[in-house]
Design goal:
The complex is a heterodimer of chains A (about 120) and B (about 110).
Chain A lengths: L4 E3 L2 E4 L5 E6 L6 E7 L6 E7 L2 E5 L6 E5 L5 E5 L8 E8 L12 E2 L3 E5 L1
Parallel strand pairs in A: 2-11
Antiparallel strand pairs in A: 1-3, 3-8, 4-5, 4-9, 5-6, 7-8, 9-10, 9-11
Chain B lengths: L3 E4 L2 E5 L4 E7 L5 E7 L6 E6 L5 E4 L2 E5 L5 E6 L8 E8 L8 E2 L3 E6 L1
Parallel strand pairs in B: 2-11
Antiparallel strand pairs in B: 1-3, 3-8, 4-5, 4-9, 6-7, 7-8, 9-10, 9-11
The chains are: A mainly beta (about 120), B mainly beta (about 110).
Chain lengths: ~120, ~110
């Protein structure tokens, strides 16, 4: 079955602009998480969605937002871009559970590489 | 907040030598997962440990979960060039609403 699909794969923006990234999870997966990864850095958690509800949120400013649709596809938006927002943005999907105790493995997409000039 | 400390940050080994990375959580975990990210790639799930004291093996890789479910390790025997990459641990606990808390990763570098 198809893996996690992220679009666009690469994009270049200028400071002050805004960007929307898209993630289509594996069919049947209801949980989607977003991460930011900068060169040589680990994975910084942005947020997690399950059944259209934000279940967890990382320590990022309000310029970073996300949502999940009824078909489990997710988008994240970054407004008023700054140079420091240049990074690889990774989306990961998992089965998730309705009880909230998500213990499943994550399947990552290839990422969207954002460059802010 | 809950943290997962992972050491070392880097490990340089000669091909054929062993490699170990360690993770330590500030709180008790429900489970811990391990991922590998090849250079230029995305993280790929390796394994999940759930039980106290659990040990699992995948060929040359051995994963351990501590008795107190607060620490874990990944050991690779006789490293090969295909093992190059960054290894991450990620733990879940009730304290974090089951959010995955990631270690900073250990980068395995094979000396030429």
């Amino acid at each position: 079955k198809a893996g996690v699909t992220q679009t666009p794969r690469y994009l270049i923006k200028t400071r002050g602009q805004q960007v929307t990234l898209s993630c289509s999870p594996i069919s049947g997966h209801r949980s989607v998480s977003w991460y930011q990864q900068t060169p040589g850095q680990g994975l910084q958690f942005l947020f997690e969605y399950f059944s259209e509800t934000q279940r967890n949120k990382g320590n990022f400013p309000g310029r970073f937002s996300g949502r999940q649709f009824s078909n489990s596809r997710s988008e994240m938006n970054v407004s008023t871009l700054e140079l420091g927002d240049s990074a690889l943005y990774l989306c990961a999907s998992s089965l998730g559970t309705s009880g909230g105790s998500n213990t499943g493995e994550l399947f990552f997409g290839e990422g969207s590489r954002l460059t802010v000039l | 907040g809950q943290q997962v400390m992972q050491i070392p940050q880097y490990q340089h080994v000669q091909e054929g030598e062993d490699f170990t990375t360690y993770c330590n959580s500030s709180t008790t975990l429900s489970n811990i997962q391990w991922y590998k990210q090849r250079p230029g790639g995305h993280p790929v799930f390796l394994i999940q440990l759930v039980k106290s004291g659990e040990v699992k093996k995948q060929k040359r890789l051995t994963f351990q979960f501590g008795e107190a479910k607060k620490n874990s390790s990944l050991h690779i025997t006789a490293t090969q060039t295909t093992d190059v990459g960054t290894y991450f641990c990620a733990g879940r606990s009730m304290d974090s609403n089951y959010q995955l808390i990631w270690g900073a990763g250990t980068k395995l570098i094979i000396k030429p």
